[in-house]
Amino acid sequence: MTANKVPAARVREQIVSILGAWGMAPAQVAITANVMVETDLWGVDSHGVSMLMMYETMMREGRLNVHAQPQVLDRSAVTARIDGDAGLGHPVAWQGMELAVEMALAAGLGAVSVFNSHHFGAAGVYAKIASDRGCVGLVTSTSRTVAVLPTFGAEPVLGTNTIAIAAPATRNRPFLLDIATSAVALNKVKVYDFYGKPIPAGWVSDGEGTPVTDAAQAMAICRASVSGGLNPVGGTRELGSHKGYGLGVVAQILAGAMAGASFSPLRDRDLAPNQPYNIGHFFLAINPAFFRPGGEFGDEVDDVIDVLHGTRPANPDQPVLVAGDPEAATKAQRARDGIPIPPALATSVRAIAERAGVPFTLA
User: For helices 89-107 and 123-132, what crossing angle results, to 10°?
Assistant: First the structure.
């Protein structure tokens, strides 16, 4: 199916109109729309405008507080904890990393945990807040959906539990790594389903460990089945799935246990129909000037990036890339040509716009 390419400004206009009609405060709408559009510009289609369907469902179920007013709790010189007030994660995540950076600029380090939040989009957007201000940023988050199999497991016990790290350089773009700790983000399977494309073997397995490649079947397994699900990074034990599994638990400990956010398998045993998901996030900012004065850190990050870019490629047609390169290239292309909106997504967003009583602008 061919996707219609829509200018980023119109995608943002659509998101702003819908969120505003739901009753979100203008400042929170602006942050959320900016993060969602930036995510789509990066090519992370699983976490941008396509999330409106899930957000509407959570709002109608009474789980999502569109009038949320996050509150900073338990603050010290270098730490803080924020109650997200059951709102969307984008505004409180932006607030959390900004606060961590302010503390790092003053004291060298800043760590902020968030609880009582919801989905916040692409973690890398928040890590980049730190690198744009000269700090190293680390972001982790728990997840709403229990969809990831532990190594050797037949039933899912973890979310996709993202980890992102950004580091500033002097001459180059920042190093920017943003990964799910599962083989792929669940919403990427959703995107393949939108396009009617099969997913690669190794992303999803059924309860017997058999790879699933039909995107619709994979989504059904990950969302509704008590067995089977997404594999950890690595796919199989032989290819290192225990490493992805371990990283997923690290994200749960930092973003969940540290903040007081829920562990989804335990939460889901008695989750009421209108109860918030209590997603947790963790934000760490490190000011390299406290370790390496005079810009030495950025210069050495440049050396690392330059050496990696200069590595002789195995295939001359595929140069060696550094984390953040694909997103930067995709953003340049989509800023010029538009964000692809497949027909199935357009149909879903049109219905949401109609229910919200706002114009549909993605045509």
Answer: 30
